[in-house]
Amino acid sequence: MRFTSSTAVALLLARSASAAPQLKYGENTGPVGGITPPIPTATAPSGSPYGDSSLLGGNARVPDVDSDTAQVPERPQLVNGQDADADLGLYLDLASADAPQPIRGDYGDVDPGPRTFDYEKLNPDLFAPPGTDAGSVPNAVWPLGLSHNRPGYRGRSGWARQQNTDVLPNAKRMAGVDMKLAPNAYRELHWHTAGEWALVLKGCVRVAAINDENQSFTDDLCEGDVWFFPPGVPHSIQAFDKGVEFLLVFDEGDFDENGTFLVSEMFARTPREVLSKNFHADVDAFKDLPDGELYIFNGTRQPKDIGQQNTTAPGGFLSGNGSYTYHWSRQEPYRVPGGSVKILDPRTFPIATMFSAALVTVQPGAMREMHWHTTSDEWDYFLQGSGRATIYHAPSAGRTFDFTAGDVGYISQAEAHYVENTGAEDLVFLEVLQAPKFSDVSVAQWLALTPRQTVKDHLKLPDKLLDSLPKEKTILKAGNRNLTALTGGGKAYEP
């Protein structure tokens, strides 16, 4: 038989496809729900997908109730701290178990399936919750890895994925977008009904905008820098030679990146006669307009000299308090035992009138101290590491959530919480508030500044503890890197 090149390629593809193994995510296998895989392979239809009335209760024979089991065949593998008192709420490293079990202290029981182990390993405080969890708390975490990732125009120009109330219903006041632009690619000229606050995560970018006061603005930003464009302000974003990834935070919970006002669509939806009149140009000048929205697309390399693209408007160039950018990367962090923090709010970045943010680094074993925010919900983005937070929801509910890099967290106004580093590396996360200044109420400081007898009458706390309460906010609390130290007689904190 003579093979052509196309035939050989087709056979190779067919052979490789048939040999490809199915992906496995640590799910349990074996009999489940009355099915015993693997089932025989059929070459022709047989039987019926339906049963008959002889299987109805009262008609069918009584089953042998000793024939099946909902227990695991072997002694369940428990991780360090899983046998401890449930109210201790120790962090459980379920990732170290082959098949984690929803057991904590005297509570719970084994889970024979069906399930996928990897989800439970990432969310041990949902799968085996602390005994102090109670009631219902709105979901507070959304992994952007589960968001639909919309690619840009052909040519591998970039992508964007978002979180809004569609996927995190309680996040009513803020939404987020993670966007990547390939080298020299654009997020096309656009504007929004929402305010756009952004943190550059990787790479460098050039932004440009004008406002309704005949003023213009252009600036270059790199990792750790921030921009803000108020609602309605048109702007462009272009990556430099090594591309850029940035995080966008919008002040509308139901914001949809796919509903942005785009320059390409504005021109496409305007009659050509009107375009000709508006721009005093022949109709032929518009014959090469794009067929549809550009969204994210590859562009011409911009000059490194920003002065070549810095067009000064009749109203002048925006600077000082009117600037749309802040070079946050150059701000030195405030260092405290347990980590560091950088705060950016309208007091130093005036144009972002209601955006206040903290970039927090928490060392292993440490935690962002127990606190709440008086006037704003809190939108979080986890940049590195892993952590957990228990959210107290009035009057008597609490739930513990786990977070890893790429997760969005959302905590409603006035709900008390902490953020504890549960990993072996620094935890880095962003706190964003819709507030004119970054502020919180520290639980420890509150008790320290409340009459001692009042605290003792309420909580029965010993004098030694009350003597140690700080009158200043500590922001972070250093802790033992061994999160199950209490099981061996150790302490959760460092003296």
Structure characterization notes:
The protein has 495 residues and is of the alpha+beta class. It is 12% helix and 30% strand. The chain is built from eight helices and 26 strands. The protein starts with a helix and ends in an 18-residue tail after the last strand. Residues 1-5 and 9-17 have low confidence and may be disordered. This is Cupin type-1 domain-containing protein. Mn(2+) 2 binds at residues 371, 373, 378, 417.
Summarize the structure.
This is Cupin type-1 domain-containing protein. This protein has about 500 residues and is an alpha+beta fold.
Terminal CA distance reads: 81 Å
Structural class assignment:
alpha+beta
The helix fraction, in percent, is 10-25%
Strand percentage lies at 25-35%
Helix segment count? 8
Main attributes of the structure:
signal, alpha+beta, RmlC-like_jellyroll, flat, 30% strand, 495 residues, Cupin type-1 domain-containing protein
Please outline the helices and strands.
Blueprint: H1 5-19, E1 103-104, E2 107-108, H2 117-122, H3 124-127, E3 141-143, E4 149-151, E5 158-163, E6 175-181, E7 185-191, E8 196-210, E9 216-222, E10 226-229, E11 235-250, E12 261-262, H4 263-268, H5 272-279, E13 296-298, E14 325-326, E15 334-336, E16 339-344, E17 355-362, E18 367-372, E19 378-384, E20 386-393, E21 397-404, E22 407-411, E23 417-421, E24 427-434, E25 441-442, H6 443-448, H7 452-459, H8 463-468, E26 476-477
Antiparallel strand pairs: 1-2, 3-22, 4-5, 5-6, 6-11, 7-11, 7-12, 7-13, 8-9, 8-10, 8-11, 10-14, 15-16, 16-17, 17-24, 18-23, 18-25, 18-26, 19-22, 19-24, 20-21, 20-23
